[in-house]
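in:
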């Protein structure tokens, strides 16, 4: 098993990662999603992101290492998912992408709420 990159602060359970992909799928169909690290960064800085999905398998890791820090400063929930190859298809593009930001969850609002609650629970110190 490969070690987690240094920027991954929380181990995301498989079901939470799957729910995050589902939020991306629903938001890309009925809401609004920003694709890629640059657009995600802008959405975080503008405070419009509701959830940021970050891939763990990004090379070099510096590409996305700033995203968790920005999200914490702005109090925007973020989730790590195992593969950038699954983010792209989830948002309806044919290429892999390192990150995506949900601006409007659309029909995925309920799933987004579940994901953010689970993330809050995971990040609380034991």
């Amino acid at each position: 098993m490969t070690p987690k990159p240094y920027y991954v602060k929380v181990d995301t359970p498989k079901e939470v990662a799957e729910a995050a992909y589902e939020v991306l799928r629903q938001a890309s169909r009925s809401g609004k999603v920003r694709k890629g690290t640059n657009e995600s960064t802008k959405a975080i800085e503008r405070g419009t992101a509701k959830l940021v999905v970050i891939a763990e398998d990004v090379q070099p890791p510096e590409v996305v290492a700033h995203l968790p820090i920005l999200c914490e400063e702005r109090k925007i929930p973020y989730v790590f998912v195992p593969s950038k190859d699954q983010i792209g298809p989830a948002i309806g593009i044919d290429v892999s992408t390192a990150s995506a930001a949900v601006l409007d969850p659309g029909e995925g609002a309920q799933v987004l709420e579940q994901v953010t609650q689970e993330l809050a629970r995971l990040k609380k110190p034991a």
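note: The mean pLDDT is 91.
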